[in-house]
Amino acid sequence: MKMKQFGVIGLGRFGSSLARELTNNGFEVLGVDRDEEAVSEMSEVLTHAIVADSTDEETLRSIGIRNFDCVIVAIGDDIQASIMTAILLKDLGVEMVVAKALSVLHGKVLERLGVDRIIYPERDMGIRVAHQLVNPNLLDYIELSKDYTIAEISAPKCLNGKTLEELNPRAKYGCSVVAINKKDGVIIAPTATDVINERDVMVIIGTNKQIESFEEELVGS
């Protein structure tokens, strides 16, 4: 399903940044917050921005929240409001509910409520930064699940001119190169004969351990 309309509840630093980026990418975005000042700041940026209490069921009904493809609960420090909002969104039949978790326990509660995706902004950013510090070739690092990761790695000099068959990451490390971003374009699902050049960006998928082993090999080369 291609998302078209997003609702972002909570326009703090995380929520406003997320809402702004979705808008910049051409999507319709409704921003909701109790704080008039936060709503005012985003009113000219988003498709719609309203002052409302997301823990009130009638309020959510009145703004037609169930008609949105995806609603993100980005409420900052009020865990109770976050949980109540998530419950109401699920009860109202919102197709996809995403919520920011402030702690592991908060995330577990949201998961049990049936929230479709839990986001841990601080934790996830910490993981990314740590990996980037350890491996200077790592450009981005996203955990797809508890076990699987997708990473963007800049090809170091030691890989210059090698084919994927020579590199053979699947046999050596268990991970797969699913795309190569070159200066003149992106190769999707590259074949064994595709050549890697220095500073090409390899998009790699595998388990966390497999990606780590591949990173360590590059650092040691």
TrEMBL record:
PROSITE patterns: RCK_C, RCK_N. SUPFAM superfamilies: NAD(P)-binding Rossmann-fold domains, TrkA C-terminal domain-like. Residues 3-119 form the RCK N-terminal domain. Pfam families: TrkA_C (PF02080), TrkA_N (PF02254). GO terms for molecular function: monoatomic cation transmembrane transporter activity. One of its GO terms (biological process) is potassium ion transport. Residues 136-220 form the RCK C-terminal domain. PANTHER family: KTR SYSTEM POTASSIUM UPTAKE PROTEIN C, POTASSIUM CHANNEL PROTEIN 2-RELATED-RELATED. This is TrkA family potassium uptake protein.
